[in-house]
Automatic annotation (TrEMBL), chain A:
EC number: 1.4.1.13
Domain of life where this protein originates: Archaea
Signal sequence segment: none
Residues annotated as domain FAD/NAD(P)-binding: 154-458
Keyword Cell division carried by entry: no
The Dihydroprymidine dehydrogenase domain, residue ranges: 21-135
Protein name: NADPH-dependent glutamate synthase
Matching Gene3D superfamilies: Alpha-helical ferredoxin, FAD/NAD(P)-binding domain
Pfam families: Fer4_20 (PF14691), Pyr_redox_2 (PF07992)
Keywords, comma-separated and alphabetical: Oxidoreductase
Record GO terms (molecular function): glutamate synthase (NADPH) activity; iron-sulfur cluster binding
Automatic annotation (TrEMBL), chain B:
Full protein name: Sulfide/dihydroorotate dehydrogenase-like FAD/NAD-binding protein
Chain residues that bind [2Fe-2S] cluster: C230, C233, C245
Superkingdom field: Archaea
One biological process term in Gene Ontology: pyrimidine nucleotide biosynthetic process
Keyword flag Cell division: no
UniProt xrefs under PROSITE patterns: FAD_FR
Amino acid sequence: MMAIIKERIPTPERLIEERLQGFMEVNLGYTFELALQEAQRCLQCNPAPCIQGCPVHIDIPGFIKKLRENKEDPKKAVKEALEVIWACNTLPAITGRVCPQEDQCEAPCVMGKVGEPINIGKLERFVADYAREQGIDEELLQEIIPKIEKKKEKVAIIGAGPAGLTCAAELAKDGYQVTIFEALHKPGGVLVYGIPEFRLPNDTIEKELEKLKKLGVEMKTDYIVGRTVTLDELLENYDAVFIGTGAGTPKLPSLPGINLNGIYSANEFLTRVNLMKAYAFPEYDTPIKIGKKVIVIGAGNTAMDAARTARRLGAEVVIAYRRGKEDITARIEEVEHAKEEGVTFEFFLSPMEFIGDENGRVKAVKFMKMKALEERDSKGKRKIVPTGDTTVLEADTVVIAIGKTTSKLLRMTMAKIEADEYGVIKVDEKLMTNIPGVFAGGDAIRGEATVILAMGDGRKAAKSIKEYLEKKANNT
Amino acid sequence: MYEILEKKEIAAKNVMYKIHAPHIAKKVQPGQFVVVRAFENGERVPLTPVTWNRKEGWITLVVFSRGKTTLRMNMELKEGDKILNIAGPLGNPAPMKRFGKILAIGMITGIVEVYPIAKAWQELGNEVITLHIVPEPMILLREELENAVSRHIVESFPLKEGMGMPEIFKELVTRGQAKVKELIEVEKPDLIFMVGPAGGQKAIFDVVKEYGVPMEVDLHPIMVDGTGMCGACRVTIGGEVKFACVDGPSFDAYEVNWEELIARSGFYTDLEKRAMEDYLAKLAQGGVQ
Ligand SMILES: Cc1cc2nc3c(=O)[nH]c(=O)nc-3n(C[C@H](O)[C@H](O)[C@H](O)COP(=O)(O)OP(=O)(O)OC[C@H]3O[C@@H](n4cnc5c(N)ncnc54)[C@H](O)[C@@H]3O)c2cc1C
Ligand SMILES: Cc1cc2nc3c(=O)[nH]c(=O)nc-3n(C[C@H](O)[C@H](O)[C@H](O)COP(=O)(O)OP(=O)(O)OC[C@H]3O[C@@H](n4cnc5c(N)ncnc54)[C@H](O)[C@@H]3O)c2cc1C
Ligand code: SF4
Ligand code: FES
């Protein structure tokens, strides 16, 4: 028996100076040798608590074992590991990069009790990346595709975010004819317009999308369901529908000065940079305007992404959060990266007013200073109350990253779908809405969640759709 | 991909495109718009279908060479070329009601958006008078409007040597205001509707409000996605923040916070100028074909 290695094997990262020069991915991932060393640390627990920690229950010790078992033959090792992952998750290159592993699979990891938990996220990412580089995923796909029995039923998927893409992949693997309708010109949802390339490169997403196309999924971009085509029309032409429209509308506080120039919603700010490549203006036509001092309001993943993006565009960046450090909701890795990249944090500041100059451009933000009580709210966070003291911070750009709500367009154009007052779609335990044959998942039913939860919903909905269609076929 | 079936310059700086887009042609209503991304490195720009044929599956757009993107479209796109992306129809259709007598005003290219709405209103039994406030070389859709509504008026002026944008704008406003005043007094419209640059809309509204005539305006804040996702297009209407792309584009002129809209529309002016200069320099070097 080998001695237990308590510390995780670190993944190489790009140098900080180099990171700030552009949008290249920061984490460089494991090599096979490093991945193997990390895999050796796994205790192969049975039952394995990591599996329970994963929202889609990937057989984590299982895929880690495959890596170790075949260490003489990296290709074989990765292929078998990938097979295990694909059983639950078709987009590991994405989840391996963006899941909050520290709160999920890695949280209960037994190794965490004696040292550092296994770096499950980076191992998952390694398997996905290596498979892609070596064409292993392609091989696996070519083995799967001929076995697919084509079915005649057609399913429409609304929205090409992680929920919709996963649902589409699962149904296509079962032989259904799947068409995705996506409002934007590029599929991916938040993965392409929100999450920056330094965390999730666009070509990683594109490669994952190619897999879907190979599985026979048809993708219609520039299609706004509710406008270009109605839900009723989809119901006439498809046997089932999945709604994965996300939570696309930014929340903006109703405070004086919110519409001053220079105040961006995180969605607009990130969309201009990620989807429209405003960082390459004027080579790309979409501009972005950022001054020297940027304040980002909020402390979730979105706030970190906006802050780090602003650093790369050359600004000084302060994150202002109304709660304390311990309540930051972003992934730890992103918070660490943000700090390394020179983003500073101000806690217990709640915005009161945006102050503009004579041209209608923001020049400062007035904040109420908050303090935390011992008492905790329903989410386990300490309650905060105003102290009565205020402070003013200068800024020529402000990015609001305090969350999103479901798309209004959906509520306006699909009134028949039952939703709560915020437009969050109501579903039963099978993820079916009040309309038979119409299912929903991801942020559209959760308000705001995570990539893996959206993918989990996509999978679950695919299963329900299958059952629904089989039942329908048997009844006729 | 959306094929350009026909392209022609219909007035100075204004190019008409007939584009194959069957699913949009099938759905579009007067008052709605589309978002066009013509090139791989292009911007997403909102434009308005002017005419369409649901059976043949095409729409027409009229594009005014305003800044880099629109100039580039007008310079580089040819008949037979394909436009990468057109999403739509977006926004809410104009309300189709009997208002009575309507004065529908278009400033410069704004008239192309007035056209489908005015035509539909006339067909519904309203008496529609259209007014086009425009420099002479940019007069467009004259015949179409004359055929579509009760009366079409063009308030135009020749462009003089050395007239820059500020002078042209001043002339548009002065003439527009005088003409609108006259029309309100003589015609006593029940509703005024206007499309044009925010500054021009505000100037006309200043006249209209003195008479208290109801006024609707289609607003043109800067947009990115056009689907309610980014919040770029936010405007304050009656003290409330609205997204023009999903709540509009049409709003009650009396409720609009004009100062804010005008300030927001001009936010990128310096960058837009830079992009234009960069593009013109490349053109001069033969950098684009
Ligand atoms: C900046 C940012 C960073 C984040 N970072 C992380 C992270 O690190 N880890 C993590 O787990 N989660 C993260 N999240 C959250 C995560 O991205 C979301 O929970 C997830 O993307 C939800 O997936 P979805 O498929 O439900 O919706 P979305 O990803 O929102 O996709 C919805 C898609 O539907 C399309 N659509 C909407 N309406 C229509 C319509 N009417 N017709 C056609 N198409 C339509 C949209 O254009 C979009 O492409 C982040 C979110 C943001 C904004
Ligand atoms: C609902 C709607 C319908 C429209 N219909 C038409 C039409 O039928 N024909 C037509 O020629 N124009 C129309 N426009 C205006 C057109 O979108 C702008 O002229 C175009 O985006 C300018 O782009 P540019 O890059 O050439 O100019 P830029 O140099 O980038 O900008 C010049 C000015 O155009 C405006 N503008 C710039 N980008 C945008 C944007 N993304 N969205 C809105 N305004 C912008 C700003 O006021 C800016 O100062 C419409 C706009 C809206 C919002
Ligand atoms: S809990 Fe940790 S050590 Fe145990 S199997 Fe899972 S990853 Fe391995
Ligand atoms: S253009 Fe993005 S919300 Fe209206």
